[in-house]
Amino acid sequence: MLTARYTTLNLDFKFPAGTSRGVLLHKPSSFLILEKDGYTGIGECSTIPDLSIDPQDSYVDKLNELCKRINDGFDPTTIDLQKYPSIAFGLETALLDLASKGSKNLFPSSFTEGEKGIPINGLVWMGDKAFMQKQIRQKIEAGYHCIKLKIGANDFETELDIISAIRKQFSSSDIEIRLDANGAFSPLEATDKLNRLSVFNIHSIEQPIRQHQWDAMEDICINSPIPIVLDEELIGVKPEEKEYLLKKIKPAYIILKPSLIGGFKQSEEWINLAEKHDISWWVTSALESNIGLNAIAQWTATLGSDLPQGLGTGQLYHNNIPSPLTIDQAKLYYRKETGWDVSSILS
User: Fold this and answer.
1) Is the CATH number of domain 118-346 3.20.20.120?
2) Hey, which residues are catalytic here?
3) 44 touches 29 (CB < 8 A)
4) Per-residue model confidence as pLDDT tens digits over 277-305
């Protein structure tokens, strides 16, 4: 008989993680634990404040309801989790892990065999100028050729200075610069700021304005000298509106965050629609622990993308789940000989 329960851990950042939406010091994650025939599957239900659409006032109630219905014998795949994409992702992942007999080998590939790494970008968090410059130096010294900078929280002139300093030392063929504004610009100022940023040969910029402003985003995509990436814009979109959104806005790229958009099946639907309309994509984790990151990375490895992915978040927390995931020369590897330690979840 299939049984279900969950536990919650508070993940502690190693540093204040700054975004245009505020600074994160801690982030709770819930872990759905499925057990059957002596095997255990674990899936992570991870939300981000002010970004995830999962209703927080009923989140615990929904987890309890899900576990109760599973324990009462209901087929978990028939339970409606449309309003709770992070729980849908956690359930999907837990079922995959259970099917693998708890091995955490959800999508077998050359990645899970340790033979091939996934190219990733180096993420630079917002902070004061010295903090951001220190991170940039560390990423370049670690072998990254693609740097992603979160912008929008500092004075814009300071951010221009930081980007300018990179370009004075490294050409675009040496270091690719991606930017993530997290919706920090207003529609009125976006064009001017994008024009000023464009002199630094920027690869792309994520979500220059807040989501749900489709007309304004369409205009920005038409006129921007920098390719636009949709990120938050994909969260909470109704199934019947997905293709309309892509056709209307026509971004250069979209980003898939499975725990924010409802899991792998939902992500694959976005990928299929994007490719239909000649829109490129990459995958990014969303501050999950190594449980969620592992699932996303293994799935990503099966997709065959050559672009650097946003999967470098496993080193963010003091108390992350020990796992085989490791980063070497700007690639994420799965070193299966290292093994997992999920005692903090199962205890």
Assistant:
1) yes
2) 150, 257
3) yes
4) 999 999 999 999 999 999 999 999 999 99
